[in-house]
Amino acid sequence: MTGLLYCAALLAIAVVLLVVLTSRIRLHATLALAGLIVAYGFAADMTISSIGRAFSIGFVHTLDQVGLVLLGGIVAATFVERSGAAARVGAVLGRHRVSSAIAVPIGLVAGTGASPTAGLALLLPLARALRGRSALVLSLSLLASFALVPPSPIAIAGASVLGADAMTVFAIGAPLAIVVAVAGWFHAGRALPTVDDSDAQTTAEPMRARDLLTVTLPVLIPIALLIVQSVAQIPSEPLGRGGMRELFTGISRPLMLLVLATGLALLLVWRWDATALSERGWAGEAIAMAAGALMVMGIAAGFGRVLDETGAAELLGESLSVKRWGVLTPFLVAAIVKTMLGSSLTATLTTAGMIEPLLPALGLDTPTGRALAVAAIGVGAMTVSHINDAHFWLTAHAQRLTPARALLALSGGTAVQGVVAIVILLILSAVLR
Fold first, then answer.
1. How many separate domains does the chain show?
2. pTM, 2 dp
């Protein structure tokens, strides 16, 4: 147990050091995080070879799954912004003070897709138009529905392992996700009372119908494909199998989403500078902007893989899983694995495998109890997103936050959402059991 706590303490020290290195010494987050990974590996008694091998697996996987989608989102966002469409839509929404409120339902719907990180990347054009703290609200809302609402992959995975009915999981998870997202919205207002929008374009021009299409279509169509991908990957195969299933999953691959998002943005902008697609134009600017975000996200995922190699998260979770605390037990186990490793899917699968044989002892061996356990695992797998999670760094990029402020805003937000959700689940388990 001492070794497990030692690894957890090392992670906490790494978080503190990252804040110091980036805030006080002004070291670039990418370099600071890379150095901390090596230091952590040595402190955890890993070999040079195992550190490099584990890091490479996590780094490459994230760039493959999220990198191209992020590039498409940033290119589309840049074209929408430089065309003036984002400024005109943002001016109308700003006058009515509804930007953050709109972000909540959009994030909830998008969160049922295959990945909240990919969803946030595709929502970047909309975040540029909504401005304010909308990127943070979108991020927290995405995580809420990704944790709780089928066809989200972790909701489906948890239901499959625990033998829960997907419709019962939806009936419990969907209303809870709304409450959790609203809690995240309130937290965002407190964590970011002021937002730096000094580099946002302003305009006195009236909004045109084309502007609304320019801002929304490059977002909504790729997001819809992500949701279809989630549905297509459900084990019961509701969209069929064979060629039809391959079509639904293939069209939502990262390369396809990159081409679709950027292609729609280009078509809908209609007019742009003759050099906009060149290396020195809008496209070059967007790709250069994406490079930093891609690197730090990949490095964060590599960190998560290095942490996974130590095995500390699973052992800590197993030591806690013997506690007979009802829905609190799966929540805490999933939260530990998520916080240690940074992966919601890994946290869900690991926790569900540990908890399934213990459901009778936890008093959750009923159809409703199993659905509550799935919800508890999902909420735990959302808590807490921090420096070993690519989603943390994408949110920091989208909201223009330093690592220290992102820890307060996003990490604190997922902690608040987790507490709110587990309190409600404890009440439901007492009432419905």
1. 1
2. 0.92
